[in-house]
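#lab-general

N.A. 3:47 PM
ok so I finally got the sequence cleaned up, no stray characters, all 894 residues accounted for. can someone with queue access submit it? mine expired

B.Y. 3:52 PM
send it over

N.A. 3:53 PM
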Amino acid sequence: MTGWLGEQWRRFKCWLRRDQMARELADEMALHQQLKADSLKENHEPFEAAVEARRRFGSPTLFAEDSHAYWGWSSLDGLARDLRHGLRNLARDKSYSAAVALTLGVCVAANTVTFAVVHSVLLRPLPVPNAERMVLMANRYPGAGVEDLNTSSVGDYYDRLEAVPALEEQALFRLGTQTVEVSDAPEQMQSMAVTPSLFKLVSAKPSHGRLFQPEEGEIGQHQKVILSDGSWRRMYAGEPSAVGRELRVGGHPFTIVGILPPDFNFVSPDVQFWIPLAFTGQVKSGHHSNNWYHIGLLRRGSNIAQVQAQVDALNAANLDKFPESKDMLINAGFHTVVEPLEHMIVKDVESTIYLLWGGAVLVLLIGVLNIGSLMLARSSARRKEIATRLALGAGGLHLTRQLTMENLVVASFGGLIGVFGGTALLRTSAALGIDRLPRSGEVRIDGFVILVSVGLAVGLCLIVGLLPLVQNLRVGLSPALHEASRGGTDGVRWRLVRRGLVSAEIGMAFSLLFATGLLLATFRNLLNVDPGFVSTGVWTVSTNAPATRYPADADLRSLMNRLLQAMHGIPGVIAAGATTAIPLGGDYNDSVILAEGYEMRPGESVVSPRRSAVTPGYFEAMRIPLRHGRFFGESDDASALPVVIVDERLAERFWPNRDPIGRRMYVPNNPSLRINAETRWVTVVGVVGSVRLEDLAGGGNTVGAYYFPYAQDPSRGYTFAVKTGKAAASVERAIATHVAAVDRELALFDGKTMLDRGELSLSPRRTALILTFGFGGIALFLAGIGIYGVLSYLVAQRRREIGIRMALGGTRAGIMQLVMREGLVLVFVGLLLGCCGALAFQGVIAKEVYGVRPLNPTVIAAVTVTLMAVALAACWIPACRAANVDPGKALSES
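B.Y. 4:20 PM
back already:
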């Protein structure tokens, strides 16, 4: 194998140098005579210097008078020769080639990963036909504290079927979990309840069996089920005979009517089966009970604006149709938002992902500026070569093509390194947190991602490569040869250009580090935020009680009592309780509640706080503090006085500066909010601390929460909270054992510690922090390299000047101060640019921070100190090198 590789390498080197010796022999005399004539005519340096330049920088063919046809842009042979010549030059200057390729490779890798996320999560349509035509209709009530709702009511759906002709098809759906009996064992599986029209809307086709029929959306005909390909293969080993069999879902018999293909993925890839929705007549006419996602398919030729106008007209008509609730809804700011369906899935992370992509592009720009600085330095070293070629008749066109080919080759190598590096980096998506983003299963590096990432990098590299081209094509032979002989320096303009590139790098690095500092401060603040409960040592797990086994409320109460008794019997359990809405669990409901005697001001809206039912022991297990009154007890059962516990925000809303204990509240049961004989009255027995239910940043409902005793408001689905001093794994096993002892057919799911739930709620921010921290580190390193490169080149170019200064009595400290001053000027200009950039983008970053000002002086100071430390380290080595220059050697080099 080694011998074969060696042979291939020898053949490659022969290909690079093909015909070179023959061309040199044929044109040697002609070249000598041409060089001699030009040297005498223009009074250049001795002829031997130009001959040496020819020997070092290329073959005679490059300077032949009849080479115009060879260098024509249409010549493929010329391009091949350019490629060979470019590879020879890059192989000769290995340090430059490696620096450019690796710098570009790192930047392309970062850009490839982030653009893969942007493209897969935000830009690529959902993986169903006509996804770009799908819209979501969501009711919002900002005045009542419900601003982020994505759902609508069943009554809205049936009204819009006729009143919104801009939609070709409409459907309702809702995600959930159901208990499925698999091989006589209960198992919780993710389900989607849908109107039969959904599959027509998404153009689904079954791999076996059929889809739901319209009549199966009616009560009595709805007990049908469609399986995903994965659940079908797992439960029935992929047997086609599974179609027509019975499957018990939630204790009820359902008939399997179809199997969906393996590539079907709508909204969530984790859905394992679908069941049809069926509503009673009363539910079909109900409005503002927003529990369902309502989507529609735009008719061809229609747009979202038309749908919005038709929905708004329908809402206005319904307000007039139900005058008793008109004022309440107007005060609550009721309106419907029509937006692309994709936005509903990714809206929580959209701004974060775009911010990350901006950071990756900024890293790429910093890398390209660094490469531009390297190119300018290299072009100065090649000035004599370029001037000689121009003097011997080579046109600017062919020199431009050749130098562009060199840049293209090294940029292509960098792009390849970046693609492979990005692919490897994406495999660590779990460590980066990418796997927790919406649509994370669709994130991949495909041809389009590679084309955009590499194309952007190579394009920017070629653009920056124009600077040395302009620099080289404007020089003449005589100045270049004289410069080479006396160790001259660049022109003032090009020195300023190089310094400007490095200052721009520092400014961009400052912006990235500033964003990293803000995100780090935000993450620290979120970790220190008081969520209203104590996460340590709390294990949570959910279950659903099947309706067939527990049909009545009394059965649900009895089951809950037995389950809590079992959990209290687990060794090491300190407290245990259950709730219908565990904090940070994503499962909560809003419901209007009013206080007796509360007089709303003109234009004031009703409020719709978070509503949940909890058992005795829940507040104790979660360590939710009691502010006034008492917690629920065993005496708060179905036969007792109906009671409620409110949080401090809701108490302040209805009873500011007053004691709410003993006061009454009621839940309206009609659109007019009027009290009638069926109104449910409850008495406040306690006030608890406010809890961050949705996320630690406090988003979502801002008007508070209230709690009913589970015994007075039972539910089939709930989550246990168990406070224990034992390890999570042992608690999980013990809970499963004790629940099975009560009812072996109860399936447990979503088992997590509260610490895990807190980490999951922060995962998008953690991903942003990790990636931005990485980008900032790369930017800091590249900025340091840029400063080092500029000062090292400065010292090399000014060796003679430094030697003269030292010969005339200059001290080492003075020389070091001279070089350090040059570097610090670059840094200060860069810091000024960075501050301007931070000021310009504070509105963008403001959406991502919590508990910290966008222009936080502490973060600015920390970033400035970090950049200054790196800059001083980068300046120190060239300064020491300058201070150690031997005056005698420096002057002899002139």
